[in-house]
Amino acid sequence: MTSVADLPGTIPVFPLPGALLLPRARLPLHIFEPRYLAMLDDALRTEHRLIGMVQPREGPGSNSRHLQSIGCAGRVTGFSETEDGRYMITLSGTCRFRITREVSGFTPYLKADVSWDGFDRDLGPDEEDPGFHRPPFLMLLGRFFEARGLSTDWDSLKEADDELLINSLSMLCPFEPEDKQALLEAPSLTTRRETLVTLIEFALLGGTHDETMQ
């Protein structure tokens, strides 16, 4: 898949709150609900093996759930089956999409017509962030991890490429679904890093009350 023209116009979509997939990143998933087992089986029968990850959102004044308009499709690049019929899979982020229409059909899972327009960069090489200053960023991240009782491999963070570092933290940090959506929709790696820093600073400010914005 070298251009958006190679991508299908209709894909299965997997609404999962807080689960963020970004282009060129990998997302492990545990699949056990019957409808999503069926979705996976069907996806594996296609040439592209794509599944669209999308954030659900609550509809105002109702109990129904709606989908965010923008998600990210991932290609199934690894899976294993447990003895009781569940799957452990890996999605490799391919390209973001915009939902144009939910498709009604006979499948137990959701499908949607999607547009890939405007996301050509997702299919290109790794992005760079020329304004990224790693030492102060890692100091801020250390404060956030300490406040949340989180741990990580700091040596790996120091050595990771800019895109891998920023995207991995965007996917893994415990932010609210609407914050994850903002990280997904960031138009560039620089914008995503700036959004990530703002979310971390806000979390520190709200978590300790004596933190100040950097």
TrEMBL record:
**InterPro entries reported in the protein's UniProt record:** Lon_prtase_N (IPR003111), Lon_prtase_N_sf (IPR046336), PUA-like_sf (IPR015947)
- Leader sequence range is none
Under the heading Pfam families, the entry gives:
LON_substr_bdg
Outline the extent of the Lon N-terminal domain. 11-204
Q: Which SUPFAM superfamilies does the entry mention?
A: PUA domain-like
Q: What is this protein's record name?
A: LON peptidase substrate-binding domain-containing protein
* Species: Meridianimarinicoccus marinus
Organism lineage: Bacteria, Pseudomonadati, Pseudomonadota, Alphaproteobacteria, Rhodobacterales
